[in-house]
Amino acid sequence: MKRHLLTFLVILFFFSLNSFAGNSELFTYDREEVESAFKELNELEDYVKINEGITLTDLLASNNNLISNLFLGDPYSTNIFFDEPPLGIPSFWWGFCIGVWGIAVVYFVTEDRDETKLAFKGCVVGTLVYVVLYVGFYVWIFGNAFWF
Amino acid sequence: MLSGSNLNILMRFRTSFFILLFFVLPKMIFGQHFFRIQGNITVKEKTEVQSQLTIGKFYYDKNTGKIVYNISFPEKQVMVSKDTVLYQFVNGEFKSRTRTFNMAQFSVFNLSLNNQLTNYGLENSFYSIDNVEKEGDLVITTWIPERSKRKYFGKVLISTRNKRLHGVVFYNARGEVAGKQFFEDYAVINGLYFPMKIVRINYVDGTETYQITTFENIQLNNLNETYFYDYPLPPD
User: What pTM was estimated for this model as a whole?
Assistant: First the structure.
């Protein structure tokens, strides 16, 4: 009995240690992995800072080796500074595809009146399209029924 | 012996004195009003398929509410975020207007100027504190969204070290870690702590994407570059 109790306490102790370590573990990341992932970008950064005023167009024109292994995105992209709508899906399509739930998602995620309006418009258009398809389907069914 | 009117004046003076003593004076002594911040910014992003490097200068004035990025690489351009609109200018000419989300409120610039960086600005949001624990040198606070929003939002864990924001862990509504941010290399500029490096890790469909933002030459309350702080925008 004592042995069982001791085993139980030991398990409980290690379990509590494990749960204790859990949250602080979340606040770590593999620095070496991140640094190695950015090795080529760091070299490019150093080069661009030394050659002040140089642009991607200049590097492409001179076939610079620093960008040969990098697949650089759209130079006029704004995404790097500014987040996208929920899951990257425009608010209109949230409303269009999942109706009222889509409006709710946009409303709670963005807390933005204009975006919610877009989702609402999407919801209205989506509903109209659904109604037209629904009616069209039955018109087609009944239309064909008269052939028999 | 004081007359009624003199007593009244004395009472008013005493009230003003106490207001000055308890509310105004401490703010004047201990808190400096910062309203502008600018500096050099470098953003590097790495996903499985793409890399991105952006270098430029940023300007933020909390009175105008505009975040202005004067970008020199990859191509010269200016981006301005104001309320929920993002404006893009190339060669000084207005190029595009995109509807976005109000990024100023939770930007590191606004949070730092308002001394709200420690709790990531969640104090004034629909999140509330659920738990606070100390683990080693970290103080970890768990924030949970209000009940009506738990269907769409997950909890947020914020850790501070030496009373400065160290990391933020974002959960999605399913309880999975969606992303992390680390605030590192703090510098003290005129008494204001500012993280010179922000590492952001996002977890999407089992893959990790990294973003590193670094700052240099941070200046506060610069009155000389008003053109950029209040960058002219086209009419709506």
Answer: 0.71
